[in-house]
Design goal:
271 residues; two-stranded antiparallel ribbon; TIM Barrel; eight-stranded parallel sheet; alpha/beta
């Protein structure tokens, strides 16, 4: 079985210091959390950025500052900017994260509209998805196809049939939001993507480590981090993203998977 790629989603756009004081906002805090994750074994940093007061932003300038700071701390880690942004942002605003220098090698592409809960709806029309895919292809950026249910895989495959994606494809299965997070669900998702594709699983909240273990056993890859889950175990807040990554590394060792370095992750993903 190939080595395990660990992605650290270090801050997201929704969680706050009120939820966990270690959630990073400032450039220095984001660099600190990225370093903690890389030192623990993460080879990919999934990056949202914030203003100093915690407000989510897709500002190209803010992304540039944070990416440069992470590079100084994490060397050759793969930095994966999010084009998801936050609920209510426009398409052009969201794409600013891909306009940094140098051009990112990897970025996220959300493949459907999502019910986040309550009245929060994260809108991604087919045309938005196809436009993002076209722009990423033109810029030479490999998309991580973020899918929250099986229907989003089908939309991604529409983009593939239009020639907007380059195979092999890579998917991120985010489970526990719009689709439940069980081994049955993960197996269904993994069995629904084209042969030769790679995949990562992110379990939200209390599902984080159950899905991590399943992903490790099934030959996929794993995402953890404050964006998805703030707790090391029930009732125990994680003190850093590094603690969450360390727990995945321990699971991987118990289950017989070696951890991929950034260079090995690039080889597995074809970056």
């Amino acid at each position: 079985m190939e080595k395990l790629i660990i992605t650290a989603a270090i801050c997201g756009a929704e969680v706050t210091k009120e939820n966990n004081p270690a959630v990073p906002y400032t450039v220095a805090e984001i660099a600190r959390e990225a370093k903690s994750a890389c030192d623990a074994g993460a080879s990919i940093i999934h990056l949202h950025v914030r203003e100093d007061d915690g407000t989510p932003t897709q500002s190209k300038e803010r992304f540039q500052l944070c990416i440069d700071a992470i590079r100084r701390e994490c060397g050759d880690a793969v930095i994966q900017p999010s084009t998801g942004g936050a609920v209510g942002m426009s398409d052009l605003e969201r794409l600013q994260s891909t306009e940094v220098t140098p051009t990112p090698e990897f970025a996220t592409l959300d493949c459907g509209t999502l019910n986040f809960g309550g009245d929060e709806i994260f809108v991604n029309s087919d045309n938005t998805i196809f436009n993002f895919a076209r722009i990423m292809k033109e810029r030479g950026i490999k998309p991580e196809l973020e899918v929250f249910d099986k229907g989003m895989i089908d939309i991604a495959m529409k983009a593939d049939r239009k020639g907007l994606l380059v195979r092999p494809l890579h998917f991120d299965f985010v489970l526990g939001v719009q689709m439940t997070a069980t081994v049955r669900d993960l197996s269904f998702m993994a069995g629904s993507i084209p042969q030769g594709s790679t995949w990562t699983v992110a379990g939200i909240g209390r599902h984080a480590f159950e899905m991590a273990a399943a992903g490790i056993i099934m030959g996929g890859h794993v995402r953890v981090g404050f964006e998805d889950n703030l707790y090391l175990e029930k009732g125990v807040l994680a003190q850093s993203n590094g603690e969450l990554v360390e727990k995945v590394v321990k699971l991987a060792k118990l289950l017989g998977r070696e951890i991929a370095s950034p260079a090995e992750a690039r080889g597995i993903l074809g970056l």
